[in-house]
Design goal:
about 260 residues, alpha+beta, five-stranded antiparallel beta sheet, 6 helices, 10 strands, globular
């Protein structure tokens, strides 16, 4: 068998749909872009991320690990779920975009402008041949004019503003819980009791494993604050936060007002 010997060709079965998922610009027969759907599925299989704007100057972010959180600017924070490499690429792109904006206009971009940058990049990658969509969902939180804002973008480039949202494997469960909580007529979000309830809700998904399975590691809780007069985003991170200390009244949330 020399270097020029003939190799036996291997015939592999063609999977259904593979005819239409080789190029990002090729639509399937029912009008779907399969590579975009693959990106969304990758994001939906990631660790759960939950973000809530509690009031005008206070927000909370729950992530499985602080590696999912990226500081973009003094007033902007990015959280992601999905493929880690794609998330880091998006974070680096947004940092450079903020720097270019400041050099061009002499001021920092707004939260909405940064979220739009993320959305535009994700959308552009769905229509350029030879590229693929990012397999991550992005949460952009930031302070603008003394008010905290929250935006979410998905691998298809859809941009929406939320009071609360979630991504990852248990996003529907967490969104349903928060929707039920905020739909109560007697909810006064600024009250200490309800703030504690929200922080506790963010971690309930860690305790919903099947019986007999190994209990998951508690995630990290990020508290985001800003002053009504404006200024940079103030961050506090509680590692491996246990919601039971809230339920048992052992967690003093008065520091949130400091």
């Amino acid at each position: 068998h020399g270097a020029h010997s003939r190799r036996r060709s291997v015939i592999r079965p063609v999977q259904r749909g593979s005819k239409y998922d080789r190029e990002i610009t090729t639509f399937s027969t029912d009008g779907r872009l399969l590579q975009v759907e693959y990106g969304i599925e990758a994001a939906d299989r990631g660790d759960t991320v939950v973000a809530v704007v509690i009031n005008q100057t206070l927000a909370a972010l729950k992530v499985s690990s602080s590696e999912k959180v990226h500081r973009i600017d003094a007033h902007i924070l990015l959280a992601t779920t999905g493929l880690n490499g794609d998330s880091r690429y998006l974070a680096e792109y947004l940092r450079h975009s903020c720097q270019r904006h400041r050099l061009s206009y002499g001021e920092s971009p707004t939260v909405k402008e940064v979220a739009t940058m993320a959305s535009k990049l994700q959308h552009d990658l769905t229509k350029r041949p030879g590229l693929r969509p990012l397999g991550c969902t992005a949460f952009v939180l930031g302070a603008c004019g003394g008010e905290i804002q929250l935006y979410q973008t998905n691998p298809g480039g859809i941009l929406e503003q939320y009071t609360f949202c979630a991504g990852g494997a248990k996003k529907l469960t967490m969104v349903n819980k928060l929707t039920e909580f905020f739909s109560k007529k007697d909810v006064v979000v600024d009250s200490e009791k309800n703030i504690a309830s929200i922080l506790s809700l963010l971690h309930d998904d860690d305790e919903e494993d099947d019986e007999g399975s190994e209990k998951k590691k508690k995630g990290d809780l990020w508290i985001l604050r800003t002053k009504p007069s404006g200024g940079p985003l103030q961050l506090s991170c509680i590692k491996s936060f246990d919601p039971n200390i809230i339920r048992e009244g052992l967690f003093d949330i008065s520091f949130l007002d400091s």
